[in-house]
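Example record used in the benchmark description.
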Amino acid sequence: MGAYYMGKRASGDNRPSRTWHEGIGDQTQEHFEVRHGKAFQPVLVLIARIWATKSGPHTVEIFRDHLLEGFVRDLTLQSLKGELDLYLKKDERNICQYLKHHCTTASNVYSYFHWAFIKRACVRSKPIRK
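Model output (structure tokens):
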């Protein structure tokens, strides 16, 4: 697991600090996916999955292999971290509800980072018998 990424905060900022860290979450649970690319592009590249909690810390899985190479990769990764800071450190009572709302907005469509809410998967513990 990666270290916590705290992002830059202004000095004297007393708002709650919602941190996130890199890790791997349970894909059968509700989570968010962030894909990268221009709006209405036929293929958007999955670059992160986020398991947000009400108060943090949030688990973020970043797919560095899916990012472009070299300078563009560094810029995209830096921009992604800024995007994660922007939304995961919001001063919202329920960050999960806020992110679900963001997934439905026009700003999400026209951004280079496209958020999608993934509902909890239905997992059967026992096979169905006929």
